[in-house]
Amino acid sequence: MKYTLFPGCKVPYFVPYYETSSRAILERFGIALTEQEFACCGYPIRFLDFQAFIYSSARNLALAGEKGRPLLCLCQCCYGTLRYADLLLRKNETLFRQTAALLKEEGLRYPGQLEIKHLLHVFLEDIDPAVLWKSNARPFKSLKVAVHYGCHLLRPRDVTAFDHPANPSKFETLVEVTGGISVDWSLRLQCCGDPLREKNDPLSAALRQKKMDSAREAEADVLCVACPHCQMQFARPPALAEAGTAPAPALPSLLYTQLLGLSLGLDEKLLGPIGFEKEKYYTSL
Known about the structure:
The strands form two sheets. The chain has a four-stranded parallel beta sheet with strand order 2-1-3-4, with helices on both faces. The two termini are about 30 Å apart. It is globular. β7 (about 220-225), α12 (about 230-235) and β8 (about 255) form a beta-alpha-beta unit. With about 280 residues, the protein is an alpha/beta fold. About 40% of the residues are buried. The chain contains 13 helices and eight strands. α3 (about 50-65) crosses α4.
């Protein structure tokens, strides 16, 4: 299977280990990635300038269409944005004509059909959880994992088409093939708070801490995410609870590719910072 990779803006600069770990795992299972120089998906300006958002997404999709392969997104925000723009363009003939005219000025053409997938789709549909389990070199035995889906993987359901928005289970399935134990926690589907960062920092920090507290109450050892925005939010130093007090304890957060890469026995140089005492959670086959 071959994909064109859409890494997004955040991954290469802020969480480059998401890309290195993803590439290493996909290569292990024979999935090839082609390169294309993309621009921003349009997410940051979606509610500021609608036409600019649509054109940003459409231009990226036109470039991807030239490769003739499905588009693979690492970032959930990019995934949701590109799929939303594609849905709007295919439903709204006027919007499509206007956007197609702008693309034509650059010598680009909107693709007749383009499959847009998130990385988790690939693990579920192209590799298969059973194959992942059989490929484990060092599965975990008692690691309790709080799975954090992220907003743009589940909602709106007609756009993302990943899992049931109120009762999902696919991400837990992927975590469990590593030997990790998925815990049931009350705030697993709530926003991490990252969209509010630098707009309302106290509220952003409060949402983050509530998620951490909920996961700890469920006795989770780590959080597991599949979006750079969520990983950046959870990995930030915790804010002070009150002036002069010690910061609230943080729960380690891992990208799914880090968790899977550990169980597969991949070179940890490709996986990035782990942040928890992994050795005590391993078992042997």
